[in-house]
Amino acid sequence: MPDTLAHEVARKSTETAVFDVAVIGAGFAGMYMLHRLRQAGFSVVVLEAGSGVGGTWYWNRYPGARCDVESMQYSYQFSDELQQEWDWSEKYATQPEILRYANHVADRYDLLRDIRFDARVTEAAFDESTARWTLTTQAGERVTAAFCVTAMGCLSSANKPTFEGLDSFTGAVYHTGHWPPEGVDFTGQRVGVIGTGSSAIQAIPVIAEQASHLFVYQRTPNYTIPARNAPLDPHQREAIKRDYPNFRQTAKQTFAGINFNFNDESAAGVDERRRQEEYEARWAHGGVSFMGAFNDLLFNADSNETAAEFVRSKIREIVHDPAIAELLSPHNVIGCKRLCVDTGYYATYNRPNVTLVDVSNEPIETITPKGIRVKGEKYEVDAIVLATGFDAMTSALNSIDFRNGEGNALSEKWQEGPRTYLGLTMAGFPNLFTITSPGSPSVLTNMLPSIEQHVEWISDCIEYMRNQGRRRIEATLDAENAWVEHVTEVAGGNLRSTCSSWYVGANIPGKPRVFMPYIGGFPMYIEKCEEVVRGGYEGFDLS
Ligand code: NAP
Questions:
Q1: Residue 215: its pLDDT value, please?
Q2: Whose CA is nearest to atom 46 of ligand 1?
Q3: All domains of the chain, ordered by start, with CATH?
């Protein structure tokens, strides 16, 4: 089996290079997939649209970008040497530090030799006669592989709403998810930020310090909890490292695959004093563990409202102008949209150079050559930042023209919403595996352990196929239907499915409203995946 790209990749569009596995994407999922499959003796090529590794951390370089999962947990655990040798510097790692980590992993495992950068896959077609996929890139390069694995991330396809007049704007326009690698210095500029989701909430306090004036265009306010970020105490870091296997194992047994203090009392079952005590402690600690204050916050609307009102009371305390505080106060279910984590977000609105513009009732009217017009009022700006999020979970896959042996398109199959078996495979699309796709816990969990679990499951499956002398694997329609039904059923019992979030595709006009990730929890999901394997790949046809 040839094993280097130099031998393999077709340099001319007329040649087709041959591999065991083609992986799309070189973020954390694609990198580990490559390493794992190579270790198992398969020839692998990774096709990556960007010019470097890191996926989401390659593209999202906006000011203030950092992970909202603590750094000691947001890293690979497949190698103890790797997790012992790397030292995170802060409680929450910045985007540059995470990108350095991704590059460190790429170098350590010599991954670059099998990754093709600037290779955006546009088409992928399965040939039933050979049981192989052929992938074509934008530049016309072609590779063929027995298996295709997508590792394109859940939040990688930028949502750029079509604002009237945007093309006429004479200043610079940036999207947080496609930030220029060289960075942007807003010193002395008037800046307009559109959106107030996680990305904006991280970027706004940093941009406000540089800009001469910052205008924030808010359609819906979000709940955000202070990060309380700080340099990592070396003693604490070493203590976790000494106990890393247990630490990781405990995390895997939690709903979100994250090791944090979860209180198993219900908010409805305790008095107001006890609730306030718990919320205050969580607010002081910081981060997404705020939602672990009580066990019924995502199941009981009244309990949820006690947490929501607590955060609103904090906004009123922090923001001096009561009218601005009210505008910043969400009134929907807390945790329904992804909870945000910030550093100094609400206090930023006390700055004289920051203006909050409410676009909740009347949308942005138009973008003019010199700025943004809302309700007849013109806001002159030098730069616009679109912090408008992503077409989540489906768009990256749908952007490639996946065709099965009958010529049917994946985008047609998903017209009414994504359908998968375990978020890993799809009926009708043999030998195609998807990492952290709709129907898997993915975005509701710590992505790194979720990615590792998927990669290992896929790699084990491909090894099993080789060992059994099988060449074709396809999820049965029955198994897929039963899984989709289960995913929908568990979502129905959770308050998270009740609001207009990207989890349900509500941020994209016309997108079918389906709760996409699996909300049954990481341990239940792992158990199901293992059960399928124990059953000889139950729910799959192997031939
Ligand atoms: P987002 O949460 O989808 O937020 C997009 C924002 O843009 C929302 O405030 C939205 O308003 C607004 N918007 C969209 N279209 C608009 C329009 N036409 N006019 C006015 N406003 C508009 O996107 P995001 O902030 O990039 O975050 C997406 C996800 O990425 C997060 O939920 C999180 O999972 C992940 N993320 C994580 C981190 C981290 O680890 N710390 C950081 C950033 C992002 P509406 O709410 O009204 O639609």
A1: 98
A2: 220
A3: 5-157+392-471 (3.50.50.60), 260-337 (no CATH)
Q: Is the pLDDT of residue 126 over 50?
A: yes
Query: What confidence tens digit (pLDDT) does each residue in 372-428 have?
Result: 999 999 999 999 999 999 999 999 999 999 999 999 999 999 999 999 999 999 999
**Residue 389 Cβ < 6 Å to ligand 1:** yes
Which ligand 1 atom is nearest residue 163's CA? Answer: 18
CB 448 within 8 A of CB 433: no
Over 60: is that where the pLDDT of 259 sits? yes
Atom of ligand 1 nearest to the CA of 198: 25
Query: Which residues face 123 on adjacent strands?
Result: 136, 401
Whole-number Å distance, alpha carbon 409 to ligand 1 midpoint, is: 29
| Calpha distance 158→502 (Å, rounded) | 12
Q: Which residues fall within 8 angstroms of residue 424, CB to CB, at 6 or more apart?
A: 433, 434, 435, 437, 439, 440, 454, 457, 458, 529
Phi and psi (nearest 5°) for 212?
-75, -40
Q: By alpha-carbon position, which residue is closest to atom 12 of ligand 1?
A: 195
